[in-house]
Design brief:
By secondary structure, the protein is α+β, with helices and mostly antiparallel strands. It has helices at about 35-45, 75-85, 115-125, 130-135, 145-150, 155-180, 180-200, 205-220, 220-235, 240-255, 260-290, 295-315, 320-340, 345-385, 440-445, 445-460, 480-495, 505-510, 535-550, 555-575; strands at about 1-10, 15-20, 25-30, 60-70, 90-100, 105-110, 110, 125-130, 395-400, 410, 415, 425-430, 440, 470-475, 500-505, 515-525, 525-535. Helix 10 (about 240-255) runs antiparallel to helix 11 and helix 19 (about 535-550) crosses helix 20.
């Protein structure tokens, strides 16, 4: 959950702090007040594209800082732990700086971070929806991924990706063996270079974890030594020392124990504890010797980690040392085969056929699972669209094959292409008007219909997922009246499981919010800057009245706004 967003010197924002809470957060204000700038700032701190032109005129840098609450055990918490970014309790600070010179910096938990890590963290904790995302929805290439997310096919997709990679590697080897001598020599050179590159790096399994542990130790060496000295002094060197006082106490207690068996037993346990404390004192005394390290060791560790990470990104993106060594072994095996120590062309042809049959089997299983999930998704989306005032809308998911003559992979009498996602081409179809045929989204959906379809997809796809921050920038495009009321209700329902942040111009949506933030502009020393104000109940009613009536707020508008707000409160209380 996004707890706080602090923006400085971005566009017309000089210095703004946006405090947010759980549930349904709303941003309203006049057109051009700066609402979308705040959304852009949020996208920026989560790895969005940065440009020097985004900096406020006259400033040298812009910065965006966000404080997130991260649930323990969530995917985002696991990512931070894996990458070694420290959290403050269950929170973490993400920061992005843009410099006028064109360079910039990113931070996670106070540590410098690649922008790619901000982007990966953002993908695990938040979704941003706006006009750009509507354009993405118009692209059929995104539809299969949305269906797979609904179907929960991660395991089968991983199996498919592995089978497709193995098949593609075998096909590549077969083609290489069939190619002319020059191409074979080129392949041999590439394989030898890959093997030498990995061998030269001498990467060991688990090396990154060991280096990170050593790095953490060295980074905190000063605190470790200080506490070692303090603890040893308290136990042994101080006057009087804890061990000395403990020895006196045990001697005196032993005299009491001559007359009381219970005391004797307690003295024996105290003796054992004293021995443990003496051992601890020795360890603390000798610990500084363990922290003796050669100059520049910390720099060497960072350089080594960067070198390993570069190799992993190059050869096994997302993988580790074991996978890298597996790539090396596979290259060595292929090199052996190409130099006459492995399979013949006939052997490899048989292997390609077997791997092809396996890939077809997994892809068919994946396709069947998709089709079953598609039927359920169609029903759920149509139900959600009904709640969004599109009751007669039909939603369907179309499946096609990707033809690939000569692939040797046959499905339903046609040669097809199979990759890490199988052989399906998936496209969403819509009929927004009764009696009209189903057709691709880009040919039949208006802006308002796309907004509601996007919201329906988010509601269905996120129904059982862990809590996220969902940002909707003008999801109300092209709608109004009863439709806006329906959208407000569904956003409110979505906010029961996720944090929802919505930018809107419609009072019907605004009346459903838990937290209402007014975004405006003011002139300070001749320059325009953005200001934000978290509205109390009275302020929320006045802002609703402005949204209803325009510049001149009438008593009738205020009464209507108060009624809308009261209805929104009643709806929130009824739904918890």
């Amino acid at each position: 959950m996004l707890r706080c967003l602090h923006v400085t010197d971005l566009a017309i924002v000089r210095d703004v702090t946006l405090e947010l809470g759980g549930g349904f957060n709303l941003l309203t204000g006049e057109t051009g007040a700066g609402k979308s700038i705040l959304v852009d700032a949020f996208a920026l701190v989560l790895g969005g594209r940065a440009e020097g032109g985004m900096i406020r005129a006259g400033s040298e840098r812009a910065s965006v800082e966000a404080i997130f609450d991260v649930d323990p055990g969530s995917a985002a918490a696991g990512f931070l732990e894996e990458r070694g970014y420290p959290r403050d309790g269950d929170g973490i600070v993400a920061r992005r700086e843009i410099l006028a010179q064109g360079k910039g910096r990113a931070f996670l938990g106070g540590a410098l971070a690649p922008v790619a890590d901000l982007r990966a963290f953002g993908a695990l904790i938040a979704d941003l929806h706006g006009q750009h995302q509507q354009q993405t929805l118009l692209n059929p290439a995104s539809h299969r991924e949305l269906l797979d997310r609904h179907a929960g096919l991660d395991g089968t997709l991983a199996e498919m990706a592995a089978a497709a990679a193995e098949l593609q590697a075998a096909v590549a080897r077969l083609r290489a063996m069939r190619d002319g001598a020059e191409r074979i020599l080129q392949r041999l050179d590439a394989l030898r270079f890959l093997i030498e590159e990995i061998d030269r790096a001498a990467v060991q399994p688990g090396e990154r974890a060991a280096l990170r542990a050593e790095r953490d130790l060295l980074r905190n060496a000063e605190a470790i030594l200080r506490n070692c000295r303090a603890a040893h002094e308290a136990l042994y060197d101080s006057e009087p020392s804890a061990l000395g006082r403990l020895a006196e106490a045990i001697r005196a207690a032993r005299e009491v124990g001559r007359y009381d068996p219970d005391i004797r037993d307690a003295v024996e346990r105290a003796e054992a504890s004293r021995a443990d404390l003496q051992e601890l004192a020795v360890l603390l005394r000798d610990y500084p010797a363990r922290l003796q390290f050669e100059p520049h060791r910390l720099e060497a560790i960072d350089d080594r980690l960067q070198a390993i990470e570069a190799l992993l990104r190059k050869h096994v993106p997302g993988g580790g040392e074991t996978e890298l060594l597996g790539v090396r072994d596979a290259a060595a095996e292929e090199l052996s085969q190409l130099t006459g120590g492995g399979e013949s062309v006939a052997d490899l042809e048989a292997r390609v056929e077997a791997l092809g049959a396996r890939a077809v089997g997994i892809a068919t299983r994946l396709s069947h699972a998709r089709r079953e999930a598609a039927a359920a998704l169609e029903r759920r989306i149509e139900s959600e669209l009904g709640d969004l005032a599109m009751a007669r809308t039909r939603f369907a998911i179309d499946f096609r094959l990707r033809p690939s003559p000569g692939s040797g992979l046959w499905i339903e009498g046609e040669e097809v292409a199979i990759d890490a996602a199988g052989y399906d081409v998936v496209e969403f179809l819509l009929s927004a008007n009764q009696g009209e045929r189903l057709a691709p989204l880009q040919s039949v959906a208006s802006g308002g219909e796309l907004s509601r379809l996007m919201l329906a997809l988010e509601i269905v796809l996120r129904r059982e997922s862990e809590g996220r921050t969902l940002v909707f920038d003008e999801v109300d495009a092209g709608i109004g009246g009863a439709v806006a009321e329906a959208v407000g209700r569904r956003l409110r329902a979505l906010s029961r499981r996720h944090q929802v942040i919505c930018v809107t111009h419609l009072p019907q949506i605004a009346s459903c919010a838990d937290r209402h933030v007014l975004v405006g502009k003011r002139a300070v020393r001749g320059r325009t800057e953005v200001v934000v104000d978290v509205l109390d109940e009275g302020g929320a009613v006045r802002e609703l009245a402005r949204m209803l009536a325009g510049e001149k707020v009438t008593p009738a508008a205020l009464r209507h706004a108060a009624e809308m707000r009261a209805t929104g409160h009643a709806r929130r209380e009824a739904r918890g």
